[in-house]
Amino acid sequence: MVEKETRNFSNEITEDFMHQVEIAIIGGGLSGLVAAYLLAKSGRDVLLVEKKSYPFHRVCGEYISNEVSAFLVEEGLFPTALGPSTLTRFRLSSINGRVAEMPLDLGGFGISRFGFDHFLYEKCKAMGVNFLLNTQVSDVVEPKESLFELSLDTGSTVTASFVLGAFGKRSKIDKALKRPFFAKRSPFIGVKYHVRTLHEPDMVALHNFEGGYCGINKVEDDIFNICYLANRHLLKKHGSIAAMETEALFKNPQLAKLFNESEFLWEKPEVINEINFCTKKPVENNILMLGDAAGMITPLCGNGMAIAIHTGKLAAEAILAHNSLKKIQTAYASSWESYFEKRLYIGRMVQRLFGSAAQSDFAVGLVNQFPYLARQIMRRTHGEKIN
Ligand SMILES: Cc1cc2nc3c(=O)[nH]c(=O)nc-3n(C[C@H](O)[C@H](O)[C@H](O)COP(=O)(O)OP(=O)(O)OC[C@H]3O[C@@H](n4cnc5c(N)ncnc54)[C@H](O)[C@@H]3O)c2cc1C
């Protein structure tokens, strides 16, 4: 463990400070925040560097699988005070609007990332995690004399004994580290809205359209999340988000009705591009990769957030159980592979049933005629409940 300097840290430290920390976490989404919280709770010296400042919106469907609920409750991290929705049922529609329904095997809850990430950030601060916000890590040099060196976009440097990469699906760091997936262009964009609408509060619906799929579910208060993944060629073809929605999404009558009957709460949607589901590795350049940085499950499975939370827990456990970097890496990589490798693969396979007329019709038929089989497939993208 790195010897701690005597310093009078407020939780948000100033950038001109030359930091030497034991554990540096790059990125403060769910994976980074959970790892930070658990490590600080065990008395470890943690600095989390986040390029944005809480609270903020992210493109995400905001449905969290119950596989992590008991763990969150036990750690005092379940956002009860924010009033999350309870989600128990699933509806699927094909491009022509044919519908099938089934119960969600584990179910989940709906909560905005604006609220949930901020809630976890406050919990981390109270636990003693130090934060550098509005700060981007631009490079990480692997250990020289046992310390990593992180370059910040502010010109400062941080040295650390351990680095956790919790920087999401695609980051400047991936380029700096020359991760192989970075060179591949991704075909997908993501679009998200918050709306008020008439929709069953316990239902997660997933509606297909040619070139993508769109989810809707309730989050806190009386707000619903509408979030879709679309092939970027659609945007190119139609020229704008609004035109793409009218021309492509609304061909599914379920989506036309949903969009036309909802009150949109923001002036414009949150949009991201370059979403890809390439395989990555849980340890690269001696950095433990968490959440989407280790590999992203396709959003239709609805458990990227649960996986992110679970990887934060596994990374913290590996660090707390071992002293040497090598042993930590081996422990983390082997638990990551056993929990997630197959799920991510099945997620990629299931995604093939979405976003085209014939396949989405087949998926709806499968749920209607072979509900047992559909439930088995759903189960395989889900993990066991964690404590
Ligand atoms: C369209 C879409 C819909 C989805 N819907 C769902 C859903 O309904 N349910 C579900 O469970 N999952 C869903 N997901 C997946 C889920 O959003 C992710 O799996 C989850 O957010 C991953 O968490 P994370 O901690 O790995 O990364 P993130 O939550 O992405 O956090 C990464 C953080 O790192 C920061 N960062 C990046 N680079 C740097 C840097 N260089 N320096 C400092 N900070 C940096 C970013 O600002 C960000 O805050 C969806 C994803 C998409 C794209």
What does this protein structure show overall?
This protein has 387 residues and is an alpha/beta fold. The chain folds into two domains: 19-57 and 115-183 and 277-348, FAD/NAD(P)-binding domain (3-Layer(bba) Sandwich), CATH 3.50.50.60; 63-111 and 187-276 and 352-381, D-Amino Acid Oxidase, Chain A, domain 2, CATH 3.30.9. Helix content is 33%, strand content 27%. It has helices at 30-41, 69-74, 113-127, 172-176, 232-238, 241-247, 253-260, 304-321, 325-351, 357-369, 371-381; strands at 19-26, 46-49, 63-65, 85-93, 99-110, 130-132, 137-144, 147-152, 157-165, 188-196, 203-209, 212-218, 224-231, 263-264, 270-275, 283-284, 287-289. Strands 3, 4, 5, 10, 11, 12, 13, 14 and 15 form a nine-stranded mixed sheet that branches. The chain is globular. It starts with 18 loop residues before the first strand and ends in a 6-residue tail after the last helix. It binds flavin-adenine dinucleotide (FAD).
Largest sheet: 9 strands, mixed
The CATH C-level class name of the largest domain = Alpha Beta
Task: Identify the CATH architecture of the largest domain.
Answer: 3-Layer(bba) Sandwich
Q: What is the H level of CATH, i.e. the homologous superfamily of the largest domain?
A: FAD/NAD(P)-binding domain
Distance between the termini: 27 Å
What is the total tally of β strands? 17
Count up the domains: 2
Q: Unreliable segments (pLDDT under 50, ≥5 consecutive)?
A: 1-10
* Radius of gyration, in angstroms, nearest whole number: 21 Å
Q: Provide the helix percentage.
A: 25-40%
Mean pLDDT: 90
Instruction: Decide which structural class fits the backbone.
Output: alpha/beta
Contiguous helical run count: 11
Small molecules bound: flavin-adenine dinucleotide
Strand content: 25-35%
- Overall shape: it is globular
Give the ordered list of helices and strands. Answer: EHEEHEEHEEEEHEEEEHHHEEEEHHHH
CATH topology of the largest domain: FAD/NAD(P)-binding domain
